[in-house]
Amino acid sequence: MTTTLTPGRAPRLxxxxxxxxxxxLVAAYTLMPLAWLVLAATKNRRDLFATGPYTPGRFNLLTNxxxxxxxDHGIFGRWLGNSLLYTVAGSTLSALISVACGYAFxxxxxxxKERLFGVVLAGVLVPATVLQLPLYLMASAAGAxxxxxxxxxPALVNPFGVYLARVFAEGYVPDEVLAxxxxxxxxxxxxxxxxxxxxxxxxxxxxxxxxxxxxxxxxYGALTxxxxxxLYPVSLGLFMWNRSVYQQPELYPLVITGSLVSVVPLVxxxxxxxxxxxxxxxxxAVK
Amino acid sequence: xxxxxxxxxxxxxxxTPRPPGASxxxxxxxxxxxxxxxxxxxxxQAASKSGQAAGAARGPVTITYWSSSAGAQQTAxxxxxxxxxxxxxxxxxxxxxxxxxKLANAVKGANAPxxxxxxxxxxxxxASGGNLEDLSGTSGTLVAEKFPAAVQSLVKLxxxxxxxxxxxxxxxxxxxxxxxxxxxVAVPKTWDEYGAAAEKIHQADPSVRxxxxxxxxxxxxxxxxxxxxAKWYGTQGDKxxxxxxxxxxxxxxxxxxxxxxxxxxxxxPLWGEGEAKERSSGQVATVIGAAWTAGTFLVNYxxxxxxxxxxPLPTWNGRAATGMYGGTSYIVPKGSxxxxxxxEFIRWVTTEPEAIxxxxxxxxxxxxxxxxNPEMRAExxxxxxxxxxxxxxxxxxxxxxxxxxVPGWTWGPAQLQVxxxxxxxxxxxxxxxxxxxxxxxxxxxxxxxxxxx
Lengths: 287, 453
Description:
The complex is a heterodimer of chains A (287) and B (453). With 287 residues, chain A is mainly α. Chain A is built from 13 helices and no strands. In chain A, helix 3 crosses helix 12 (234-244) and helix 3 packs parallel to helix 13. In chain B, 43% of the residues lie in helices and 13% in strands. Chain B has 18 helices and 14 strands. Chain B has helices spanning 29-43, 72-82, 96-108, 123-128, 136-146, 149-155, 177-182, 191-204, 218-227, 247-261, 273-280, 293-300, 339-351, 353-362, 374-383, 394-402, 415-424, 429-446, and strands at 61-67, 86-92, 115-119, 156-157, 160-161, 164-165, 167-168, 171-176, 233-236, 239-242, 286-290, 308-312, 328-331, 370-371. Chain B is globular and about 70 Å long. The two termini of chain B are 48 Å apart.
């Protein structure tokens, strides 16, 4: 909490209580579904319906996990692997492309630069759902439907990332450094890869994390583009199971435990990279 | 937060950077993506269309098959073993409205499979949208000869056959034998008796309600209205007629709203976690289900073995009648180049006892789906382990109920929207009818189809 110079302790205490109460509410709102998920994943089918949503039942998590990973010849593991592949490859490349573009917008002068940047900004405003069908038809024409590419390639383009990267570049990469490196004889590629990219690292991680979440959760892209269940990411696989619960009630506990497993990589990615991310978020703020 | 990570405009950047010789660095994101799409072009293979032989003469014909049905993979495998001339390549796809949208997109992009499964209620929408092949020539005779009249009106529209039925789904009453016995209540034969039973049981034990009917699945309301004599859709000349909010349906809706208002029926939505809790803990005395419901009980409520009885759905006037709740048919999406092979697979999968054997033996939870075709139904009945229902054969009850399905029901071209609108209406059934009515009228007008009256 910030310290202020307002006279009197009571109003400060009051406002602090109010803020904390509000934060507590928001935290509870965010954490309750997660708590439910964690608890539900540990219960067997009987306890799931017999016990209250927030009371633990007999501990059955390991059996549930075993069921999830062995159902249908271990298809869930394949989905998880697909998701990791799509997400890590997709968001690494996407972040690299975004950073390169943002850097280019910062470091170079070229014709129609600001107009082009305007196009990028306009791209941020177009909702993903609007583009789904055109993208699908383009992928169809290219013969890429139902391949890894149909899911990966659209994920590489991230106008918001380009915008963010430009802001980062303006904050982190001083023109003087670029000029000095050029005087020392660095080529433009080397300049980007060895001088600018390390300076832009927090920006890279920030964009990487944004893209990571978005690709991991890109459900509609997978739904339209992919028809082969061996190519499905985990989100689509779980959705398919969930839709089949009507016919195959044995899938119910699998959907719950599978959902818990599928958020673990996201949590790990955030915990591992949040240090960079936090420093990245505020980096461009003062500029 | 970024809302989208997609291909944007194809505007191309002509890079003219400040220092000379650096132009290759300055590629815009869109230019990069154009390049990558081009790579995908060369590297990708359209799996859904690969392996499609040019004609039947050279090697086996490969047809693609999408479904969300349980056991579809094993059924396709069994077909492939006995049909060297046709090979079915199966893909598991999600069901429900999203699955339907996916299929419609696939038809637009010319990636649709040669065979798919579809809920009866979605057929008119897909047929009127030009997304289905007309099967009159390939499967018309099969449907006319091998299937009961009540389902024929569901797959025939405008005199053409658009699908081949798989199952019939008559509504039935599942009831807790022990609860009815304990309070000396007879199994209701009419809805009046059902209401009286609800009150009597709830009075004797306030924790028990007659059933849960708090929304969550508008298809039940459709089936109950169907039983009451409603016909939600019809045609008048070349125009569609919508009568969702008609007197017969109103009667049904007001009846259930009344039971819920007086507290003898629970407002818990269908299919949710709450429903499973109420049913497994004995807080509801009956379940309005369809033929396929019986199989799900074995997995959902294993502790209640021997406690459930199955009876015909209570009626309005004492004359046996029922409606349908769900049900699956086989279609050939528009654009298939293998309609003959597709028709052969569909014939096999909807009428051959061997097909149902392959399906049922692969399932982890038993299926009590009632095949529409009589030969197949007999085979399915043989394979179902009825010990859960102690002495009652769910197939016999369902088969008898199927014979009382009120004939002449057709679905309409806007049922997906109607279903969504009714789902949003919550537990209020009267509201579900009026919302459904206006959603249907709007959707039909919006799509430029004729609306009568």
